[in-house]
Design goal:
Order of helices and strands: HEEHHHHEEHEEEHEH
Number of helices: 8
Number of domains: 3
CATH architecture of the largest domain: 3-Layer(aba) Sandwich
Helix content: 25-40%
Largest sheet: 4 strands, mixed
Strand content: 5-15%
Number of strands: 8
Radius of gyration: 32 Å
Distance between the termini: 104 Å
Amino acid sequence: MFCENCGKRLERTLHAISPHNYCSLSCAAIFNNRKRPERNAEKIKCPTCGKVFKKWVVGNKKYCSMECCAEAKCYKPEDLLEIIRNAVRDLKRVPARRELKSINDSCKKLFGSWNKAVAAAGLQPNRSHGDRMYKRIMTKASDGHFCDSMSEAVVDNWLAENDIPHEKDVHYPNTHHKADWGIILKNQKIFVEYFGLANDSPRYDRTVKEKRQLCRENEIPLIEIYPKDIFPRNSLNQNLKNKFEEFFEA
């Protein structure tokens, strides 16, 4: 018995003999591929980036990728602004750049950047990662507590300076969520949170709502601190004392 492709002599037991016999999988593939009609791929030049690619499938494929296809769409400035405004109506907030990725390149081309396009639509752009007041930089507060940012360290130092006993990263009841600080004053447990990314991230905003709900369900007062309480001027002495006022001794 011989291989049908290369003619190599084969040894097979009776039960292993089949209508077609090959010495290897490669020979089987070579032999069977000869039966198939040769496919001639059409070479096409992408009109967006100029890349030459092979078009194997039948259809109206003109671009090498979805990105090039989206970029090729011709938008007028007013079209882009209308798309952004419609997204705001649907989302009830300013969309992030990644949520309208298909028009991002067009916004850059016509307005200079995504944020400039958002501003041209009469909206307040989301703060970029570099502009956020809250940055995850591990910082040690004056009392030895480790904080996730310089802003948290400012709040922690204020609590220490005002002799308010506090514990860092306290668990919410029956959940994996943690409060930035747990405080007990007059036998009352209080949670203090620095919401540094509020209105910057939809996921972060959902977490804020969950924490508020947990505090309501467990009857735990929640004191919320925001970047405006610290920047551009540290107003914790005024704002935070007002929030703590009912827990201070007269």
